[in-house]
Amino acid sequence: MLLTITTTHRPATDLGYLLVKHPDRVHEFRVSTGPAYVCYPEAGPQRCTAALLLDIDPLALRSRGKDRPDEFTLGRFVNDRPYAASSLLSAAIAQVFRSALRGSSPERPDLAATPIPLELRLPALRCGARASGASATNQADAAAFFEPLGWTVTATEIPLDGDLPDLGPSNYVDLTLTGTLRLADALNQVYVLLPVLDDAKHYWVAPDEVDKLLRAGTGWLAGHPERALIARRYLAHRRALADVALARLAETEADTVDPGPATEEDAELPAAVRKEPLALQRRTAVKAALEASGSARVLDLGCGGGALLAELAGDPRYTEVVGVDVSTSALAMAARRLRLDRLPERQKSRITLLQSALTYRDDRLRGYDAAVLMEVIEHVDEARLPALADAVFGHAHPATVIVTTPNVEYNANYAGLAGMRHHDHRFEWDRAAFTRWAAAIAAEHGYTVEITGIGDADPVLGAPTQLAVFTGGGGVA
């Protein structure tokens, strides 16, 4: 199977620096399913093409005992796996172009961070299933996944043997992608979408595949209209893993919505400042509030995949960090992110993961200095919020409670956003509604509350995220 990468960037031979493969050599690699080669069919200053050729060994496939597209015995030996691009080629990309996938180029770091004109071709690609909303053609299937990423897609169906008309339409296309992207982004997109289009993987999908998906999908997957389908197929339709992946993507989903043209003032800021994700700004604000409270024993309620937990666990000021979530899959993913199985016992003893529903009283959550509800309350039915308030502010009653939630007024700044920011949100409050709720909770449970915003504030609509810090609870022992 074959992948070619072509650029007309001047000088085009800089492609060799980006791939960390010299154009004057043939590079050979040994992957688990056979040898892989990288060579340059053309290498000139105006146009350069690199080719990755994977020579699949059918016996190696058979010995692995995993790639069995058909139930009958002959199908284990006679199939399209050595020829049609699939997860086998993705695995080779990951091994052969490891530095390019990371966007690392010691000789041309600026170029590695720059979009360049690219043409990627996969002469034989199996499109085994349809993307949601796509017409019943493999060309539309490929376009549904790649066009939202900025590619111009040319997918030509590869005809089957004309002497056997009963075989029906072909599932194979000759795919060409043309666009201007960072090479790292292009390779990561192909790495993910090859097994998605094929709707199959040649190896067992374990929980660490979620980390691989999110790492390769950085910067593009959260905003993809087919992200749910991509997650399901990439994770071999293992629903629990797909749910965890989508929940972690939701942490940055609102940040991928186009907020419209930047203001003149914003345009003068460094790019790193302008583009700091809102999810990161939220965690920074929450950690600042925790630090100001002097808390040492902290609950992260509705911790999800553990983004905040990981940062708290790395800070020695916190002597005990407890992550709480109703989802066992989310807790398993948090454990992986925290690397609990590898931590020294002294560090591991500071971290606890608990399964619990926040709308029920739980004695295990009593006696802590602080509790965080970061982007949690909007996932609870409004009718259940009094139960959450009783369980957290009343029964657990930590000295400090920190709550963040979206400001629905700010949604007007997100061009193309229809409805709420996430499909699982039960509601999104304006600033007046959040203020009324927070004031009522404080009065009922003996807290004082201060409300501020997180993110770049609109002079009329306020900040994208609302932050309430409740203090004075007392931390019942």
Secondary structure blueprint with pairings:
Blueprint: E1 2-7, H1 15-19, E2 27-31, E3 34-43, E4 48-54, H2 58-64, H3 87-96, H4 98-102, H5 109-112, E5 116-126, H6 138-146, E6 152-157, E7 172-181, H7 183-198, H8 208-216, H9 227-234, H10 239-253, H11 264-267, H12 271-274, H13 278-293, E8 297-301, H14 307-313, E9 320-325, H15 328-338, H16 345-348, E10 351-355, E11 370-374, H17 385-396, E12 400-406, H18 431-445, E13 448-454, E14 465-471
Parallel strand pairs: 8-9, 8-11, 9-10, 11-12
Antiparallel strand pairs: 1-4, 1-5, 2-3, 3-4, 5-7, 6-7, 12-14, 13-14
Helix pairs in contact: 3-7, 7-9, 8-10, 9-10
Overview of the structural elements:
The structure is a single chain. The protein is an alpha/beta fold and 477 residues long. The chain has helices spanning 15-19, 58-64, 87-96, 98-102, 109-112, 138-146, 183-198, 208-216, 227-234, 239-253, 264-267, 271-274, 278-293, 307-313, 328-338, 345-348, 385-396, 431-445; strands at residues 2-7, 27-31, 34-43, 48-54, 116-126, 152-157, 172-181, 297-301, 320-325, 351-355, 370-374, 400-406, 448-454, 465-471. The strands form two sheets. Strands 2-3-4-1-5-7-6 form a seven-stranded antiparallel beta sheet, with helices on one face. Strands 10-9-8-11-12-14-13 form a seven-stranded mixed beta sheet, sandwiched between helices. The radius of gyration is 25 Å and the shape is elongated. The model is unreliable at 65-72, 130-136 and 254-274 (pLDDT under 50).
